[in-house]
Amino acid sequence: MSWFARLKSRLSKSSGKIHRGLVSFVTGGVLDEAGRQELEDTLIAADFGVTQAAALSLAVAKRHRGQDVSPETLTQSLRDVLTDTLSVHARPLVVPAVSGPAVFFLVGVNGNGKTTSAGKLAAYFQGLGVRVALVAADTFRAAAVDQLRVWAQRAGVPLYEGKDKQDPASLVYESYARAKAEGIQLMLVDTAGRLHTKQDLMESLGKMVRVMKKQDDTAPHEVILVLDATTGQAAHTQAKLFKDHAGITGLIVTKLDGTARGGVVVALSSDYALPVFMIGVGESLEDLQPFDPKEYAEALI
Amino acid sequence: MFESLSTRMTGIFRSLRGRGVLREEDLDQVLRDIRIALLEADVSLPLARSFLAQVKADAVGQNLINSLSPDQLIVKIVHDHLITLLGQQGYTLNVDKQKPAVVVFAGLQGSGKTTGAAKIAHFLKTKGQKNVLLASTDIYRPAAREQLAILGQQAGVDTLPIIEGEAPLAIVKRALQAAMAYDVLGIDTAGRLHVDDGLMEELQSIVALSKPAEIVLVMDAMTGQDALGVAEAFAKAVPLTSLMLSRMDSDARGGAALSLRAATGCPIAFLGTGEKITDLTPFFPDRLAGRILGMGDVVSLVEKAQSVVSEKEARDMEKKLRRGQFDFNDMLSQMRQMRNMGSIGSLLGMIPGLGQLKEQMNTEEANQKMRQTEAIICAMTPKERRDPKLLNASRKIRIAKGSGRSVQDVNVLLKQHLQMSQMMKSLGRMNKHQLRQMGRSLGFPKG
Ligand SMILES: Nc1nc2c(ncn2[C@@H]2O[C@H](COP(=O)(O)OP(=O)(O)OP(=O)(O)O)[C@@H](O)[C@H]2O)c(=O)[nH]1
Ligand SMILES: [Mg+2]
User: Fold this and answer.
1) B:328-367 residues touching chain A, CB 8 A cutoff
2) At how many degrees (to 10) do helices A199-213 and B363-378 cross?
3) Which of A111, A198, A260 lies nearest to residue B112, judging by beta carbons?
4) Are B183 and B101 in contact (CB under 8 A)?
5) Class assignment of domain A3-87?
6) For residue A288, which atom of ligand 1 is closest to its CA?
7) Could you tell me which CATH class the domain B317-441 is placed in?
């Protein structure tokens, strides 16, 4: 099964809902204000948020003002509008050509799937022939290093770990030199989960990111916010504060294999100019797939 | 949101004064605003709809002649409804009747079960004098059992020794055996998707085997619209008895709590408020209602303030202000009161609308400034504190030396004090009405 088919089948529950909804929005062939509001509500129920849902539904309504419209056309319109919005900042996650190792950070709140995504990403790039190392920079949470070690074994890549309770910034610093010496092309840094509202923890993350610049002023090459698809509107401040402190450059959305739609990423992408790089659709090594706006829109609606 | 809500409402309702009863048309705009507030707080759409219908039904035809203004009335109706939906406070886990009493923790991946289990074990041990054993049946997530073992150590409770390759049900059997000598057995389960039939069946078998006294559904406070469906599915699979909402130390407004309540009918037993083992707080429906509406946790703040400032102190201060007297002693005692209430950061976090500010401002720096100021005031003689005009150049040098700051720092403080006392003087001339207006513009609810 292609990932698209898989995503589609996994998103199918809501897909049905939105599609069925679209049929009922059109009364007598036109999308009236009541229909538009229902469309808006459907998007709200997928975590798009009030503002984004209003904007998208208005964009769809504008396309068909005063015209006869079939549910199919409406479906297509909504998909188009969604695809367009997500495409503005879309770009694939690739390892840049740099002289030393490329450095990607995975950051985010607790329990959203950073470590799992780090393991899956390692396997993904390893599969593309990139020499990868995982860096266990979560020196805080209980058994976090053990967890990443298992993923490193699964992916077949080396794990760089620090001494007990080592300052993560110094571990990251040392790891870079080691990666360079060992001919590593991509260094994936798993960081400790932290709430965006914890000033001190956010500052130490900023420090960890800045320390890279001393080794290579183009590093880190990506700082990826891992976002759990079940997250609601609190994702807005997550994105804002992780951008302010750590300069995030894109998103990975995890747990899309549940019933959550992750609609909030649409607003995040446009508000903070962030591409969605990858999506997590399960707990196995291969359950991480490149994100495609069009396919996401089709799977969702 | 709430601030704009209440100002908008005031505008809408001004025209209604003296009209007698609330009418349906008058309410629509207000209800639209409340709807937005609820949805942005992640209250699920179907719940928001039925909630608004209920509020409307209650509000229409209400008499306006009593002492409440229309906006106060509608806020009260909304607030009261929320509190009713959020349910009781002070639920205590039912762990006294059986021995061992089994508590099962269930929820989605990453929802905070393992940390929650350790926190509750610590709570039962310290507050309830219970002997607790913890066991993890999470054989799927790498190092999950090691994590619980470490957290158990931090909580000062025993954990079931790990046997590699043991299946979840076998772990439960062994845990039940081992727990004979304990009051409570806490069983941590693997995070699972509610649509994963295999794992949901596994959860059912764990429950069937362990016959728990409590099944706690743990959910992340930041969960969005999905919360309702997830909670419904868990409630359908196993007889849940209580709820825990984790990561309440985030800025999430926590509308997911309403979904949990609606789907399960279970009481919310605990809130998780941090990464430490002691970061567990009881649940108060009124506080969460305020938070969902975007009012911030005003109640907690007020309580904190009350616990450190006595009535009399407050009255004395007000008198001084009105007379335009505000010396360094007053400044010192104010600063200390503030410090007693917690760090500036934690205070700002509790005030509605100021959470953002907390992010923008360097609160550590502010705390440090406050300590420096305190040092300077402490280096003054009592006489100097009462009469800042005494401070000439040589006295300033002495104070600077005594506090380890520079003379310039002392000058800055003097200037600040002067500005403050001028401001206080003008405050003292304000009447009650103006003061209240100012409070409101600062984001405090009317009082
Ligand atoms: N179903 C599903 N589960 C996932 C996915 N990604 C991660 N998980 C699960 O979510 C849970 C938490 O994932 P972790 O990778 O430990 O999250 P983390 O962000 O590293 O957590 P902390 O380091 O504790 O902050 C684990 O049980 C993972 O198996 C996904 O795409 N789908
Ligand atoms: Mg992790």
Assistant:
1) 345, 349, 355, 358-359, 362-364
2) 110
3) A111
4) yes
5) mainly alpha
6) 31
7) mainly alpha
What's the CA gap between B204 and B208, in Å, rounded?
6
A104: alpha, beta or left, given left = phi > 0 and alpha = psi -120 to 50?
beta
Token pair belonging to B122: 């610590």
Structure tokens at A67: 């015209």
- Find where tokens 């409570």 sit: B184
Radius of gyration of chain A (CA): 21
Report the relative pairing of strands B132-136 and A288-290 from DSSP bridges.
unpaired
Report the gap between the CA of B225 and the closest CA in chain A (Å): 6
Q: For an interface test with A, which of B220, B351, B361, B367 has the most A Cβ atoms less than 10 Å from its Cβ?
A: B220
Q: What is the pLDDT of residues B20-54, one digit of tens each?
A: 566 677 677 778 878 888 999 999 999 999 999 99
B110 and chain A in contact, CB less than 8 A: yes
A122 pLDDT tier (thresholds 50, 70, 90): very high
Q: What mean pLDDT comes out for the span B176-200? A: 96
Domain A102-300 fold is Rossmann fold (3.40.50)
Output the pTM of the full model: 0.78
With an 8 Å Cβ cutoff, is A235 touching chain B?
yes
Q: Contact, B266 vs B240, CB < 8 A?
A: yes
Compute the distance between CA of residue A90 and CA of residue A103 in angstroms, rounded to an integer: 20
CA B55 to CA B22: how far, in whole Å?
12
Domains B101-292 and B317-441 share a fold: no
Q: Tell me which CATH code domain B101-292 carries.
A: 3.40.50.300
A60 touches A32 (CB < 8 A):
no
Chain segment B63-90, per-residue pLDDT in tens: 654 545 566 667 778 888 999 999 988 8
Highest-confidence segment of A222-231, B308-317, B361-370: A222-231
**Closest Cα partner for A24 from A62, A75, A80?**
A75
Nearest CA to ligand 1 atom 27: B109
Highest averaged pLDDT of the listed ranges A9-23, B290-304, B385-399: B385-399
- DSSP lists the bridge partners of residue B63 as B21
**Would you call B142 and A260 a contact, using CB atoms and an 8 Å cutoff?**
no
Q: Kindly list the domain boundaries of chain A, sorted by start residue.
A: 3-87, 102-300
Nearest CA to ligand 1 atom 8: A113
Residue A231: which of B224, B275, B359 has the nearest Cβ?
B224
Distance from the alpha carbon of residue B28 to the mean position of ligand 2, in angstroms: 46
Q: Return the ligand 1 atom nearest residue A147 CA.
A: 16
Q: Which CATH class is domain B3-86?
A: mainly alpha
State how far residue B277 is from chain A, nearest Cα, in angstroms.
12
- Spans of all domains in chain B: 3-86, 101-292, 317-441
Q: Which pLDDT value is given to residue A130?
A: 97
